[in-house]
Amino acid sequence: MLRNDPTQYDDLVDEWWEPSGGFAMLHWLAASRAQRVPPAPGPDAVLVDLACGGGLMAPHVARLGYRHVGVDLGLAGLRVAREHGVAPVGGSVLAVPLVDGCADVVVAGEVLEHVEDDVQVIAECARLLKPGGTLVIDAIARTRLAGLIAVRIAERLPGGPPPGIHDPALFVDRRRLLAAAREVGLDLRLVGLRPSVRDLVAWRRGRLPVVRMREIRLTTVLFAGLGTLR
């Protein structure tokens, strides 16, 4: 099986906005990371959403008052994102085609574990942010436990990622990530995430459209990060 296969995002483009489809957990994570985004500081505030896919953060960003700019390599996903109010920009998260200091908030959700150079992505996030701007991330940790849960188990569960979408070799070294953030002037704090078990049961029974993500102390599987550019 080909791992870290980005073509799956285009192949499953019709499922981006299906809460019970192949990208169900991405809906849960989009809602979770939106909780870390502060209200827009002004009428011209910009949020840059790296690897935005089909634009699942759009309804959350709209409520907060930002102009939502989505960056992605997948043109099919960008077309879907545009339909939901996202200003699409085709490009790589390793060299984002936007000017320095253009964003009040940068979101890099579920992307660091899909690139060869996550340190470069963090550098790009810092470059895009205004001083005092906010960085919101989530990613999968580079641990044996994460490889077991996020790949071998999750890919076999309803709502989990499509088979082959992740390569454990690309999962994120948290110490390296924090060091890279400090190097570019970002104060970054990490917390662990897990799905609410009660919500997950209700979702499986069709009683909830989205499963809430709970913060936990351990960051050894799935984690979120909130940072500020000094």
From TrEMBL:
InterPro entries: Methyltransf_11 (IPR013216), SAM-dependent_MTases_sf (IPR029063). It is an enzyme of class 2 (transferase). Its EC number is 2.1.1.222, 2.1.1.64. Keywords: Methyltransferase, S-adenosyl-L-methionine, Transferase, Ubiquinone. One of its GO terms (biological process) is methylation. The keyword Transferase applies. CDD domains: AdoMet_MTases. The keyword S-adenosyl-L-methionine applies. Residues 48-137 form the Methyltransferase type domain. GO terms for molecular function: 2-polyprenyl-6-hydroxyphenol methylase activity; 3-demethylubiquinol 3-O-methyltransferase activity; polyprenyldihydroxybenzoate methyltransferase activity. It comes from the Bacteria. This is 2-polyprenyl-6-hydroxyphenyl methylase/3-demethylubiquinone-9 3-methyltransferase.
